[in-house]
């Protein structure tokens, strides 16, 4: 637990704006609700509510408390960000404004699995990741890029159709 506090403190110190610091802090505090410890679960209920009210309703940053995100998260210009609760994001990842990460409903009406992001993944403004895809470590997704297929580690993709740059 103390180790996690140190990680969260480093995340908050590294966040650029006060808004980004608050978004990350409220998200991290709300994740305590996932604890198996009943006392911690009770103590964290107000943070789940604050994550919903401040982050979602006020800042338009929807990152549910159930979302698994490694430490070192960076959020630049935290506004209009939507992350499905089933998404898994690795350590030291970067999200920018307008990012959407989630599942899709296929032709048969079934909901697909959500994306899994490796470590040190960077998502440009308005990037969209959809479906049961995996992004390897150190992947960079350019602004406005829609990704619907898995990407190997180290790939850099931009534009419609995810044109690879390397």
UniProtKB/TrEMBL annotation:
EC number: 2.3.1.30
Gene Ontology biological-process annotations: cysteine biosynthetic process from serine
Molecular function in Gene Ontology: serine O-acetyltransferase activity
Keyword Oxidoreductase carried by entry: no
Keyword tags: Acyltransferase, Repeat, Transferase
Class in the EC hierarchy, top level: transferase
GO cellular component: cytoplasm
InterPro entries in the record: Hexapep, Hexapep_transf_CS, LbH_SAT, Ser_O-AcTrfase, Trimer_LpxA-like_sf
Superkingdom of source: Bacteria
Family matches, as Pfam families: Hexapep
Annotated family: Belongs to the transferase hexapeptide repeat family.
PANTHER family named among the record's database cross-references: SERINE ACETYLTRANSFERASE (PTHR42811)
Official protein name in the record: Serine acetyltransferase
Organism encoding this protein: Pectobacterium versatile
């Amino acid at each position: 637990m103390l180790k996690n506090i140190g990680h969260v403190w480093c995340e908050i110190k590294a966040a650029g704006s006060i808004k980004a610091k608050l978004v990350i802090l409220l998200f991290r505090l709300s994740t305590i609700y996932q604890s198996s410890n009943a006392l911690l679960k009770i103590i964290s209920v107000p943070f789940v509510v604050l994550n919903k009210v401040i982050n979602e309703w006020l800042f338009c940053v929807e990152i549910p408390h159930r979302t698994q995100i490694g430490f070192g998260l960076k959020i630049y210009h935290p506004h209009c960000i939507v992350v499905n609760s089933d998404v898994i994001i690795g350590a030291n990842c970067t999200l920018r404004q307008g990012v959407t990460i989630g599942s899709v409903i296929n032709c048969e009406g079934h909901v697909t699995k959500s994306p899994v992001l490796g470590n040190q993944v960077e998502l440009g403004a308005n990037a969209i990741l959809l479906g049961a895809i995996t992004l390897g470590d150190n992947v960079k997704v350019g602004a406005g890029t829609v990704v619907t297929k898995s990407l190997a580690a180290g790939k850099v993709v931009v534009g419609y159709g995810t044109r690879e740059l390397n």
